[in-house]
Amino acid sequence: MRPRIPGGRTTVLAALLSLALAAPIAAAQAQGAPPHGSVAGAAPDAERPHQYEVTGPATAAARTALAATGASIDEVHARAVVITADRAQAAAVRRLGHTLRRLPDPPVAPPAAPGARAKDFPPGYTGYHTYAEATKEIDALVAKYPALLSKQVIGTSHEGRNLLALKLSKNVSKDENEPEVLFTAHQHAREHLTVEMALYLLNELTSKYGSDARVTKLLDSREIWIIPDLNPDGGAYDIASGNFRSWRKNRQPNQGTSQVGTDLNRNWDFKWGCCDGSSGNPADETYRGASAASAPEVQVVSKFVRSRIVGGTQQIKAAIDFHTYSELVLWPFGFTDDDTGPGMTQDEHDTFATIGKKMAATNGYTPEQSSDLYITDGAIDDYLWGDQRIFAYTFEMYPSSFGSGGFYPRDSVISKQTSRNREAVLQLLDLADCPYRAIGKQNQYCKGR
Ligand code: 0X9
Ligand code: CA
Ligand code: ZN
Question: Which of 178, 191, 223, 396 is catalytic?
């Protein structure tokens, strides 16, 4: 059967959670998180959702039922979860019989002038890259390492921002017959740390080529794709008012309603909307969109992934999609509780689990099948595996809980929390020539490569 969330971790987190709940502000500050609470004069944002600690749900089935209210589940504990919900979703969760406790909002900056658009992250967060800053940094890296790094515009977001794919390899301008690996980030607008993860990888893998033996060998023998920002519109919207908006979805309007946005990680074209793992209500955090791949951002990236089928063979062998938060390494499937079944043999499951645990041993995250948390349908990792047979993982980055900053940890953590995943990334790159090597079955599955 599926592994349960290890008791040790849940116990520690439960203790942490109750500590933070007893004195949220003090606990948060003790751990280096930003001060919470509103600054006098800050404009209240009636629309913005809030985080709640919900006591009650103790099984994946109970959490899936809770997710059906349209709230997003941000943390999972043995007998409680943390959710993000608007007023209606919070009421629906209460109707399920659970007890809700509201958590402090992310920090509020002094109000911007009416109508003014914030150009940068607020104080304490300026180390995060806005879309414009990330673009500038990427262009500078491409100019500095033209033989190793190339940039393609693979399409545009709903609001017209460029969606980029960066390729890293020796002889980068040639399509060589080398195993390819894909790293994606920032499907969810408020998960800004994931863009920093992508930028860290771009910097690390270019600047260490020729001096670090492992990096050199991997760039010599792999083709690495990095899509650093799947949801630039959502990211910009999340910071535009000068206060964080806790926004999750993209910024695509929905017909017949004023409710904006699709949850990109419920919009992928594999078992889309199949299994109560997403919402059909445009008002919800986990709205799956009008149809599979209806979000332009998902369409563009799906098309890019399919473009890597060369001579009938998908060149991309492995992938990580970066999210925050909870410090987890997740693997498919998310749409079903079953470990194995159609589309997932025992050997495939064992390969996923073995590599997932190996990576988690390097960064201290908790490894598990994604449906151990709750059911999700239309998520990217299910698509990449189910449709393209790519060994695709989801990483939920720092922190482990809202007490350490939740979706909004300060910029001082960026360096430590991105480099923390270096070893896991290098291991996946190394295994990309034959993931089945992780379970000793390379001769059975990868002969003649
Ligand atoms: O709900 C999600 O999309 C992810 N959590 S987040 O807080 N970043 O929104 C978890 C997805 C888990 N399911 C799969 N990876 N399939
Ligand atoms: Ca190459
Ligand atoms: Zn996410």
Answer: 396
